[in-house]
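Here is one chain, start to finish.
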Amino acid sequence: MTEDQQTISVYNKNIERYKKLVVTTNLDKNVELFLKMLKSKAVVLDAGCGIGQVSSKLQSLGHVVYPIDASLEMVRVARTEFQVNATQRTFDQIDEVKFFGGIWANFSLLHTEKKYFPENLNKLFIALKQNGVFFFSLKYGTGENRDSLGRYYSYYSKEEVLDILNKVGFVVRKQTNGEDKGLTNAIEKWMGFFCTKK
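Its structure:
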């Protein structure tokens, strides 16, 4: 399993704090851009769906959503409070082939060790249809470490990400940047990538 068990445990234990943080945060500009790039009634994988707020939005617009998360507590809240059919599943367990018209992976790939990043991207590449769109976001920086809550993070430079994406077979159609405050109250810079297959 490429997912970090300590990180999953932190999310399970801090689910109420996470809910409050997410509920008070508007769906960001990346969601709107993603929606514009999706074909109507697309089949979408929400990889690392959290409490399911994005899946709920996609579902309300007529898309068929497959929300997955490694945290059982996230899955529970997504199912009971956002009425989406979330399942506990990790990147290792994604085995669909050219099935999804869209893949949304917002701040989820960064919780695995860097050595697994290309492998996880390749699984998503195989799962995405040829004309599908793939979005993911990472935190900007260098190295790998745990935050004050014990969550595992891999940090990347833009050049590092572009090189790996190119090797896997993705091309970046649009790139976004920003900074936000998360569970630790620290403000960190992030990068978002909208990709298609070459």
